[in-house]
Every structure is written in C-alpha cells, then in structure tokens.
What we know:
Helices cover about 35% and strands about 20% of the residues. By secondary structure, the protein is an alpha/beta fold.
Amino acid sequence: MTPIIFGTDGWRGRVGEDYTFDNVRRCAQGFASYLADIFKPAELARGVVIGHDKRFSGRDFALAAAEVIAGNGIPVHFCQGPTPTPAISFQVVHLQALGAINITASHNPPPDNGFKVRDPSGGAIAPERLKQIEALIPDSVAGVRRIPAEQAEAVGLLRPFDPKPAYLARIRALVDVQRIQEAGLKVVYDAMWGNGAGWLDELLAGGKTQVTVVHGGANPNFPEMDRPEPIRPNVDAGMAAVRQAGADVGLITDGDADRMGLIDEQGVFIDQLRAYALMALYLLKIKGDRRPIVKALSTTGMLEILGQKYGAEVHEVGVGFKFVAPKMLETGAMIGGEESGGYAFGDHLPERDGILGCLLFLDFMVQTGEKPSELVELLFDEVGNHYYYSRIDTRFPGEKRPLAKERLDAARPEQIAGMRVVRFSGYDGYKYYTEDGGFLLIRFSGTEPIVRVYTETTRQDLVPAILDAGLEIAGLK
C-alpha cells in the first residue's frame, strides 16, 4: 500500500491514484490508534470532530474516516455539509473533543484531496506527534477496524450536527460585526468555490454594508482559477469584480476558508506578506495588544520592525502550522501566521481563520476610516520603507531532490543581485538575509512536488534578479 506521509499540513494526494478510500481508512486508523495511546479509555468518549470541503466526494471520504473512528469505539461529531476548517477546529474546543479529522486539500489543484488532523486545542499537531500517527498507520486495510455509518449512527457513535450556529456566535463575540454592518461599505467577497460562502456573507448581512459574492457555489473544477489559493493569478477574477462594482474592498477566502486574501479599492491585490503585517499592525495599534507574534520563516520581515517598535516579541519558526500552532500555545501569542495567507488569532484558536481575518481587516478600515491602499501606506510609514514580495513555484520530481539538496547545502553566496548577504539560515529551507532587510528563501514544499523560491525586499527593481539568483542557486536555471 501507499506510504502515508504527513507534510506541512497533513496528507494530500491525487484522487483515484494514491488518495483512495482504503488509504483514507488507513489514515483514520492511525489517528484512532494514536488517540487510544495518548488518552485514557474514559476520555475517548469525548469523541472526534470530522468535516469536509466541497471537493469531489468529500462527504464520502469523510464518512469513510468516520466509520473507522467509530469502529474503534470513539464517537464522531460529524459536520453536516461542507464546513470551513476554522469552524471544524472551533468545534473541537466547543465540544471538548479529542481532536479533528478534516477532509480537504485546501488550496491544492482540483484533482487532489487531503486529510488534516487537529489536537484538542483545535490547532495543528506538532511534528513529533505526527510521526507517531504515521507510525501507527497500518500497512493495509486488513489492519483497519470499521463499522458502517448507519450502524454507527444507530448506536450513537456517529452524531451528525450543524457546526454553524456556535461558530458564528463565537465570531460575533470576537468582532463588533454590527459596527461593520452599519459602516455602509461596499464589499466584494470571492469565496473561491469554497466553504466560506454562506458563512462570511451571512455574518455581514443585515445592515448598510453591501456584499457581492463571487465564486460562491460548489464547483470542484474551480473555474476562473488554477486552484482555490488566494494569490495571483487565481484572484484575478475577484480583482476584476472589485473594479466593476466600484467596491471599497475585496475579501478572499481559500477552498477551506482558513486562508485569506485582500484586494484594495482600486482592484489591486495586497500580497500576503503585506496582509500579515497589516493584521499585526491592527492588533498592535488599534487593539493595543503586546503579546508575542509567531511567524513562519517564509513571511515578512516587517513583523520584526513592528515588534521592536511596539514592544512585542517575535518568534520565527518553520513553515506550516504544525510549527506555528505549538509556538503560539507556548508563548501565548496574539497572532501567528505564514506566507500562504493563513493567520491565527490568540483570542480565538491556534488555527488559521480566513473568515475572522477578513472581518478584522474590515474593522481596521472602519475604525481608522482609511481605504485599503491607505492602510498599506500607513504600514510602510510604520516600518520606514516599502516592501515588495514575490514567489516562483517550480515543479520538481522527488527523485531529483537529493541532488538538489546537496547543491543547496553547499551554496553560500556572498551577494545576491548585487546585495550583500548578511546572514544565512538552513532551518527548514535555505534563507539568505540581505543587507536591505529583505531575504531570499529556497525550500521544498511539504505538500506538493514543488520547489518554492521567495523574496521580500525594499528594492522593487531587484525582485526579478533576486528570484533568478534563487533559481540558479537551486540549479533550476
């Protein structure tokens, strides 16, 4: 059978190839065995939350996992209908469950699906714990215990429920939604054919603020985008909708609504590094929060400047919420995030929440009276410079990885695009810090056969040259 490896955020595969019902059942058995190992028998009655997104056969895969968890004598709280990842994570805490299984491939291409697991905090499980789960996954379905869904429901081990009311109530307790509703904003919301549709727009309904939803239905082929990832060119149709509507702002959530994206009033995409810095600035400047900030190494250096200016510690960790979430819990952080557009808020969960993030950005606009482009300029005034970001993804067969790794391990350039390299880190990638306060990062994706080359710099004119240098260092050019 296919070896199951949990990457940056769970296991993902191509439906019908390695992502099969049998392999989903094997994963679920590994998680059930893990729970039985770390919890006392009486504690297992707290159960596991299971949900899914709008991808092909999502509900069927979720039921397959539920049958296995129930077959191990552990109750399943089964989300009725496609459910945003943050709502699934919230229900773990709300129901005091042991954790969650989420059938979603998040931002991956249409043919993929995935298997995420969460701990009792609702956050990602730490890397060493994921290794324990992997080790407990049986080699074949012969090692899987399961009972049919109808039988599990009849004996009370499968418990369908509506996760929406409690989650929306929680969000309303965290954000003054009425203030946003009455602000009279004109909002375009791009749901990217994902789970956020019918959730974020419901929160904003009922006042003077008008919301136009695009890509709000269910279509696992994701028309008008390559994948439901809130970056260009996938957001180009949403940008056009903002311009056409003359909207004040565009909001985006990805396929499972744990990531977010922002479009300004001119229809210009606000990149995810600027978006993270804006979310941190909102908490520091508007909310007066001074708790720590946790950032993945692939995201913005503006956070260190803001942290120093406002007296908040900044902790840099590896890429993925399996690193971010545990550090947030350890430090009591106010926010944690990564380059992919996923931001978690300490008053809520150690889990990305694109719906909450979008509402907080609207609150930033309402409380300052500023347009999105003006908030970006406010950010640059705060950090003392303009920052520019870009990324190139290159498909890269797994068999070539050892040779590329050997090449990258040996590479220590003194200059990149004419700028001096002042520091190097080989932690979870190859990161070269440049004299202007920016960086070049090269790393292998933990979820796809891809090499990513990233840069953030104060030198807009050098962005292409820095990325080219990264491709050359990696042997890709």
